[in-house]
Amino acid sequence: MIDITRALKALSGKRLIFHSEADFQHALAWGIHLQYPECLMRLEFKPPHLDNRIYVDIWATDKDGVAAIELEYKTRGLYARMGEETFDLLDQSAQDIARYDFLQDVQRLEQNVSGPNNIVGYAVFLTNDSAYWSPPRDIRTVDASFRIHQDRTLNGTLTWGSGASKGTMHNREKPILINGVYKMKWQDYSEPSEESYGKFRYLLVKVGTSLKKS
Predict the structure, then answer these.
(1) Is 68 inside a domain boundary?
(2) Secondary structure (DSSP) of 119-141
(3) Is residue 214 a part of any domain in this protein?
């Protein structure tokens, strides 16, 4: 089975920073292909065993099974040069929405692994925004249920707080149901700059076969 931690470590030695989520997706898929040349790689793949229109960022198949990988790449503003290449990252903010989207990725991966055998899901969140991995100063925020900071344990039904605006919840009104139990463990990825927001970390949530229905 594909080792995503190994793939991310290898990638961090070649690509310290990415222009966009699509750039990250392509680079990780190519890195997995180089490490596992026998692997069949597909991007934006729709699993045939799911009725709804769910597309998985990376669908990697080898003789041992499938790695279904969902990616999030959220940035704070950063200007950096890597050799002859310039990176001018956007200040994306909207952390509450990004947290919801990541946990929705986990929920979708749980749906994937409940299907055919030998599917393992991986949700990856890469960012240079410390607000994601740092504990909140105020636990009464509207996205308190969706926090993914270091050592947080996630499980159960996650909902917006009562003060969440309609704009924040637009197309994200539904609660998220997490069947598994996941402890958030952030890992260092790279530090392409000594400026503010020059350090990148990633969160990897593995969704395994223990969630399969009997």
Answers:
(1) yes
(2) EEEEEEEEES-TTTTSPPS-TTS
(3) no
pLDDT at 213 (0 to 100):
46
Give the Cβ contact number of residue 47 at 10 Å: 17
Could you give the CA distance from residue 158 to residue 175 in angstroms, rounded to a whole number?
A: 6
Domain of 10? 4-208
CA distance 97 to 111: 21
Position 143 in a domain: yes
Q: With left for phi above 0 and alpha for psi between -120 and 50, is residue 29 left, alpha or beta?
A: alpha
Residue 175 DSSP one-character state: -
Q: How far apart are CA 131 and CA 148, in angstroms?
A: 10
Minimum mean pLDDT among 17-26, 76-85, 132-141: which range? 132-141
- Residues 59-105 have pLDDT tens digits of 999 998 999 999 999 999 999 999 999 999 999 989 999 999 999 99
Assess if residue 126 is contained within a domain. Answer: yes
Least-confidence region, from 152-156, 161-165, 193-197: 161-165
Q: How many domains does the chain have?
A: 1
